[in-house]
Amino acid sequence: MDYSELLSDDVHGFMRSPVREIFKKVNLNDIYSFAGGYPNGSTFPIEDIKQICADVLSKYGSMALQYGATQGVPELRQAVARRYNVPLSRVQITTSSQQGIDICTRILVNPGDVILTSSPTYLGAIQSFKSYRADIQPMSGWKEDTCGVSHETLKKAKFCYVIPDFQNPSGETMTITERQALVDLSRKYGFVIVEDSPYRELRYSGTPVETIYSLAPERTIHLGSFSKIFAPGFRLGWAIGPEELLDSIYVCKQSLDLCPPVLDQYLAAEFMSSGALDRNLKKSIAYYKEKRDYMIALLEKYMPEGVSWTHPEGGLFLFLTLPDSIDTVSLYDKALSAGVAYVAGSFFYPDGSHRNTMRLNFSFLDKNKMENGIKILSEVITH
């Protein structure tokens, strides 16, 4: 049967994730993969989770296995509100930060509406924006009055999407001056800011910068995630924002999945309130800092002349820039055949430019595999 005539127009805007396509083709255990954004499994607090599971089921019984409130169970909402010092009424639990991005797009954007983004930006956000047929307009920086976007485009913008801390893919962090410049621009032109912060608590050096939400709570939706600070198998995140916008998110979520996974929420709430989150986060930060430093040392040791990379203060990624003559999209099959995977940087640019860049993840592989993978990758680039 030919289903093509039955599919909606939106389907044609769907974009396949090159990262997910990699995982369909190969077994991660058979290659040196720098492609995914996977936390390292050794940071997952398995023993704590075993105990917390028993505690939650003993404490809440069948409630933990029942349907829950769309906005999230009170215990988790209260824990998030306390941690980030915001009113409870401004907290909505989501089924992952990715869902938060998608719902924000769903409630704010009509086909053809303008979404502003940093450039490069998170691939999953580009996928969501394209699925709603948005007009994605990359901003060239934060120093110009209009951040490289025309006045006409800024007037049409519905929201600006940014990852201000340890951005995926670049690993870079916006300064307080840059954040304030974006806030000023949003107030001048009337658009909302969607601040995606899944990596904010994974800081290894430097000084924390105020959130954009703290600078402009009346026009910012702040998204967070438990995937990087707890475990990604718990598909949980949160949205903090103006109550009127949260109400639209609340109603939209009812039609998507009714409520976030209830058992997972009680586990996350207990994990936070017991102090286990902060204890485990401290260990994870020390572990990932060592991994980041080791990858930078390997790049300095093995990469050929003409290759440069970012030096992130946190997060899970480094972004490499190769000589203009090297196309990392074309180079990929050669690299995969040699046993190493990365993500071509052009996938993170809405216009597909910057084909001489790549993103590398430093959290997933152990040190021996990381060194072997970087050696192979440098040889592929050189030859």
Please compute the radius of gyration using only Cα atoms: 21 Å
- Remind me, CATH topology of the largest domain? Aspartate Aminotransferase, domain 2
Q: CATH-wise, what's the superfamily of the largest domain?
A: Type I PLP-dependent aspartate aminotransferase-like (Major domain)
The total tally of domains equals 2
Spatial shape = globular
Instruction: Output mean pLDDT.
Output: 95
Characterise the protein shown here.
The chain is an alpha/beta fold and 383 residues long. 41% of the residues lie in helices and 13% in strands. The chain folds into 2 domains: 9-44 and 278-382, Aspartate Aminotransferase, domain 1 (Alpha-Beta Complex); 63-275, Aspartate Aminotransferase, domain 2, CATH 3.40.640. It has a 7-stranded mixed sheet with strand order 2-8-7-6-5-3-4, sandwiched between helices. The protein has a 4-stranded antiparallel sheet with strand order 9-10-13-12. Helix 2 crosses helix 10 (262-273), helix 4 packs across helix 9 (243-256) and helix 11 packs parallel to helix 13. The mean pLDDT is 95.
Brief rundown of the structure:
This protein has 383 residues and is of the alpha/beta class.
Using brief descriptors, characterize the structure shown.
seven-stranded mixed beta sheet; four-stranded antiparallel beta sheet; 383 residues; 13 helices; Aspartate Aminotransferase, domain 2; alpha/beta; Aspartate Aminotransferase, domain 1; 2 domains
